[in-house]
Amino acid sequence: MLRETRLADVTLEESDGKMILEGYAIVFNNETLIGDEEYGFIEEVDSRALSETKMKDVPMKYNHMDSFLIIARTKNKSLTLTVDNIGLKLRAELLDTNTNQDIYKMVRSGLLDKMSFAFTVDEQVWNREGKVPKRTITKIERLYDVSVVDTPAYDATSIYARSLESMELELKAMDLAEQDEQSKIIKKRIKIKSQI
C-alpha cells in the first residue's frame, strides 16, 4: 500500500504554563484538489473512513521527518486523537524541551499553521463523471503520524507522484472492468440472435 500525506490547520492553547497544540489532522467530506485540474484529482475523506483505522501508536512529528525528535505521541498519552463529526481532532501537550518550545513559538507566531497526516488507504471509490476524477477515501488502513508542517504536503513531488500513480492504476482497472462487462453483453446479444 502507498503511504500518503494530507494537510489541515493547527492552533495552540496556553493553560497553566503548558504548551498545548490542537487542531484537525483530517476533516471529513472536505474536497481537496490534489495536483491540478489537468493531471490531478479531487479527494475527500469519508466520515466513516477512520472506523477501523490502526492508530495504536501514532507520533506527532515535524514535517513527517524521522530524523527530527518526536513532538508528542499517543503511546505516552502526550498526544490524544479523537474522531468526531468534523474529523480527526488532536490535542498534544508538549514536553518542555528546546525543540518543542521552538515548535510552539513558531505556531504561536503563525510561521507554522498547518497539519498533515501520513496514512495508507484500504478502500476507496473513484468517480470519473466530472471534468476532474474524484477519489473518496472510504477506509484508511493505518495512520502513521500527524505532523506540524511548514510546506503543505500537496506540493511534495514524491507524494503527488505516488498519489497520481495510484489513481492511474485504479482508473485502468475500472476501464478493464467496463470493457469486460461490455464484452459479456455483446456475447449475450450474439448468442440470443443466433438462437432466433
**Integer-rounded radius of gyration:** 21 Å
Quote the average pLDDT: 80
**Domain unit count:** 1
Strand content: 35-45%
Number of strands: 10
Number of helices: 2
How helix-rich are the residues, as a percent range?
A: 25-40%
Q: Termini distance? A: 50 Å
Low-confidence stretches: 153-163
Shape: elongated
Instruction: State the order of secondary-structure elements, H for helix, E for strand.
Output: EEEEEEEEHEEH
* Biggest sheet architecture: 10 strands, mixed
> Which structural class do the helices and strands define?
alpha+beta
Structural write-up:
- The protein has 196 residues and is an alpha+beta fold.
- The chain has one domain.
- Helix content is 26%, strand content 41%.
- Strand 7 and strand 8 form a beta hairpin.
- The longest helix is centred in the C-terminal third of the chain and has 39 residues.
- It is elongated.
- About 6% of the residues have low confidence.
List the defining traits of the structure above.
196 residues, alpha+beta, ten-stranded mixed sheet, 10 strands, 26% helix, elongated
TL;DR?
The protein is α+β, with helices and mostly antiparallel strands. Helix content is 26%, strand content 41%.
Q: Could you outline the blueprint of secondary structure elements for this entry?
A:
Elements lengths: L2 E13 L2 E10 L4 E3 L6 E5 L13 E4 L9 E2 L5 E5 L3 E8 L3 H12 L4 E14 L6 E16 L7 H39 L1
